[in-house]
Amino acid sequence: MIAKTQSRAGNKEFGFQYPAQFDSFKANVEEFLNNGGKYIAVGGGASLATKTLGLTDDDIVVAGYSSNGIAKVDYSGEGVTGGYGEDDLGFVYRPVWYENTDNDEVSATFDDNSDFFVAGHWKNNSEAQGKAVIVKEQDKDVTMIGLEAGFRDHTDYLFRLLSNSIFEK
Fold first, then answer.
1. Does residue 5 register a pLDDT over 70?
2. What domains can you pick out in the chain, each with its CATH number?
3. Cα dist. 2→45, 49, 123, 135, 147 in Å?
């Protein structure tokens, strides 16, 4: 998790020693993007980090860690979601969706039907029905993917989302 400092002992070695390190890291990421770099966030932690870095104004909604399964997803079929269709599938683990996405390109949403969650376990999944699950900022090359596109080898069907995100112009 990206935070200005890490207060938990177990996370100290993975965090910033002091807030100025965070500020320097944030400036480096912004410079990278301004020079044509791509920023791709996959999953809850990465999406929350995107918000912490100020790279999105979207609201990131994250379900519980014990939630996972297969959901119906409506992909646009272009760009990041090239090769996928409107009535397709995705895998979620600690599901993530995005709200207040008016200034984003929404590439995929959870299906807008009450039966969008096909298999697995996810309490209160109706909150995500019809919500954006893959978005790209319009003013910078920042993509957030709420599906677990690279989770072990369970999701090889979704690996194309990762490669499309990297190679999309």
1. no
2. 1-37 (no CATH), 38-167 (3.40.50.880)
3. 8, 5, 27, 20, 20
